[in-house]
Write a structure and sequence with these properties.
By secondary structure, the chain is an alpha+beta fold. The chain has helices spanning 10-22, 52-66, 98-104, 106-109, and strands spanning 27-33, 43-49, 74-76, 83-87, 91-97, 115-116. The protein has one domain: Beta Polymerase, domain 2, CATH 3.30.460. The protein is 30% helix and 24% strand. The longest helix has 15 residues, at 52-66. The termini are far apart.
Length: 129
């Protein structure tokens, strides 16, 4: 596969995942750098949706958007749409419904992880008010 020869750094792919989730009106999106804290991945992307359909749409957007540069190793929880995990190896994307995100509280679990800034151009929440 030729397009795999040009590998985009994990941090850029993580930010792209955030952007693709934001494209589907995701809320409270965070990109956390965990490579110095854990061996499970280099980056976590956390995002919230308001319904199972929105969470599924966010997962579809992330997978389709990254398809030209990276393929998901695994996807879990898609059918229920309450907590979908899309695993790209060095980037893991967690897409939650609000109540599920509060219960599992990954934000606190990974509170020591530095947060990567998401470029303003991808953010929608404060633009529509």
């Amino acid at each position: 596969m030729q397009d795999k020869e040009v590998m985009i750094p994990a941090v850029e792919r993580a930010v792209k995942c955030a952007a693709f989730a934001l494209d589907k009106k995701a809320l409270d999106v965070k990109v956390l750098e965990i490579k110095n804290i854990s061996s499970i991945a280099d980056y976590l992307v956390l995002a919230t949706g308001r319904s199972d359909r929105q969470v599924q749409a966010m997962a579809d957007s992330v997978k389709q958007g990254l398809k030209p540069i990276d393929k998901a190793i695994d996807t879990e929880g898609y059918d229920e749409g309450r907590w979908v995990v899309v695993d790209f190896g060095d980037v893991i994307v967690h897409l939650f419904q609000e109540d599920v995100r509060k219960i599992y509280n990954l934000d606190d679990l990974w509170s020591r992880a530095p947060q990567i800034e998401i470029p303003e151009e991808y953010l929608w929440e404060h633009k529509e008010k």
